[in-house]
Amino acid sequence: MLVGIDLGTTNSAVALWKDGAPQLVPNALGKDLTPSAVSLAKGGQAWVGQAALDRMATHPADTVTSFKRMIGTAGTVTLAGTTLTPEDLSAMVLRSLADDVEAATGERPSGAVITVPAYFNERQRRATRRAGEIAGLEVKRLINEPTAAALAFGLADRGDREPFLVFDLGGGTFDVSIVEMFEGIVEVRASAGDNRLGGDDFDEALVRLVEPLLTDPDALARLPADRRHALLTLAAERTRRALTTADEADFTLVADGTSLTARVTTEAFEEAAAPLVKRLRDPVIRALRDCHIDVKTLSDIVLVGGATRMPVVRKALTRMFGRFPNTTVHPDHAVALGAAIQAGLLSGGDGLEEIRITDVAPFTLGVGTATRDQHGRYHDDIFAPIIERNTPVPVSRMEGFRTLSDNQRQVVFAIYQGEARDVKKNVKLGELTVPVPPRPAGEVGVDVRFTYDTSGLLEVDVAVPSTGMTRNLVIVDEDDRRSQKDVEARRKALEKLKVHPRDEAENVAMLARAERAYEGFTGQVRDVIGQGLTEFQGALDKQDPRIIADAREGLGRLLDAIEANPPL
Ligand SMILES: Nc1ncnc2c1ncn2[C@@H]1O[C@H](COP(=O)(O)OP(=O)(O)OP(=O)(O)O)[C@@H](O)[C@H]1O
Ligand SMILES: [Mg+2]
Question: How far does residue 303's CA lie from ligand 2's centre (Å)?
Fold first, then answer.
């Protein structure tokens, strides 16, 4: 079975093609979204999803979120003494989603279509694919998130559509795609974005605004840095959500047993967020320019991603486009549903015969070259594009180069992705060296062929026609060349972690939630939560499922009541 997975910075979701429609698969807590969060304890105990997110407040040093922002880098995190790569962490989330599918259907998915931001580069794409493999999923295809959302949008009416723009602002990434639909073909005309812009950045801006205004800054200063950061970020996210439906909201947190608060107005937040809102503009302009489409001819501006709920973003969009955006697709579900449509397409799902998708390459790909100017001076590190950005994929292009020096013995091609003329400003993907016969400068030709597949992944072939010599390069990570064997090793290492069994997930999540609430309040409320926790733990000890379920529901109702109306 093939599933579609939206592996998000903040939330992930899994869906499958069933009975002629894409359907989300709920997790063990009955929710469609699983927070992309992982927490560990000494001894290898592991939490994934909502329980892990709740542990962020109580165990910040052993908990991590937003690790998608690190994927494709050599960075690692150490939680409770265990060091994990961003791929490992993503694999843990993917595995938990696969568990959910298995629980819902009785069958473990063998493969997946995983979505990535359109503006993910080669390294980030390869790392995402490796995460899938570590999780035991064959990654049949990577599909761009706005493309997936466009598929979900298009499937709803299946009519022809003038170009529309998909505006996807999630927790960590921002993508813009311009898409057209005719005769069952979904054609992405251009995409652009910023893979470091999302709700997380708005949280940071709010923290910077509020930190100096808090009632008791000393209580905050006494906390260790990771704890302070976790509490501030969590409070910022809560406040930001509150500001979506109200003009003012209280930023509140409990630090070191003291309640701190600051009132935030929409006006102050919008001012703090202005530099971020400004950054939403350039990718829109670039995408439109690349496909020569006038903003006036766009038929719709389709919103995707939780952060597009922010009024400050909607206002900016209405100004930018001179009209109200289209909010008919579900901002949290569209990407996973689109991935399930793609999974259905790949496995010949019923009702999908007539749909085709074409996508584009997000970045220009090329090689670093050297040239001589008319004065014979040598300039190196100049980018020679071979496949321009927004070229439809799959695509294969060849470019011919000649030797530059007399009796040169080899030609080195460094492969880059990016837009800058100076290759040092682009992302280096790898290097290929081919031997050439010693001849006068310019006499030996070398052909370089770049092939971009439908997942946006690159392969490079170099040939020297005069000698028949060829070299092939499948891009691997520059920093650490992880091989298939490493995938196995990582899978085994992750299997040693003790993730709570799925049938205990609800209890584990309730414990984590109650502990977070206990730390988040003071005084009498805290005592009440403490009592509730003791009772729940007592019920757990009895090991009777009925008693446990009753106690869990009781504690849940208590927490709902407190959180719906938090006392200050
Ligand atoms: N009601 C709301 N008001 C304001 N912001 C919201 C609201 N609901 C969700 N968000 C924000 O949306 C973001 C998460 O969106 P989403 O789940 O689409 O991201 P993601 O898919 O995990 O991330 P990405 O696509 O960037 O990898 C968070 O920053 C969250 O604070
Ligand atoms: Mg998303």
Answer: 11
**Average pLDDT over every residue of 528-556:** 96
Q: Which architecture characterizes domain 2-197+279-360 according to CATH?
A: 2-Layer Sandwich (3.30)
Domain 502-564, CATH 3.30.450 — does that match? no
Nearest CA to ligand 1 atom 9: 306
Q: Is 35 in the pocket of ligand 1 (CB under 6 A)?
A: no
Out of 5, 6, 10, 302, mutate this one to test ligand 1's pocket (max ligand atoms within 8 Å of CB): namely 10
Residue 444's closest CA among 417, 415, 424, 465? 465
Assess whether the C-beta atom of 69 lies below 6 angstroms from ligand 1: no
Domain ranges across the chain: 2-197+279-360, 199-276, 365-474, 502-564
193 C-beta closer than 6 A to ligand 1: no
Q: Which residues of 20-59 are buried (b: 16+ CB within 10 A; e: fewer)?
A: ebbebbebbbebbbbbbbbbbbeeeebbbbbbbbbbbbbb
Cα separation values, 553 from 48, 79, 371, 489, 541, Å: 21, 31, 72, 41, 16
**Index of the ligand 1 atom closest to the CA of residue 332:** 18
Under CATH, which number does the domain 365-474 receive? 2.60.34.10
CATH of range 199-276; options 3.40.50.300, 3.10.150.10, 1.10.10.10, 3.90.640.10: 3.90.640.10
Most confident of 319-333, 358-372, 477-491: 319-333
- Taking the alpha carbons of 401, 405, 410, 412 in that order, is the dihedral positive or negative? negative
Q: Which of 100, 122, 133, 145 is catalytic?
A: 145
- pLDDT tens digits, 346-390: 998 888 877 889 999 999 999 998 877 888 888 888 999 999 999
- Residues near ligand 2 ion, CB 5 Å cutoff: 8, 170
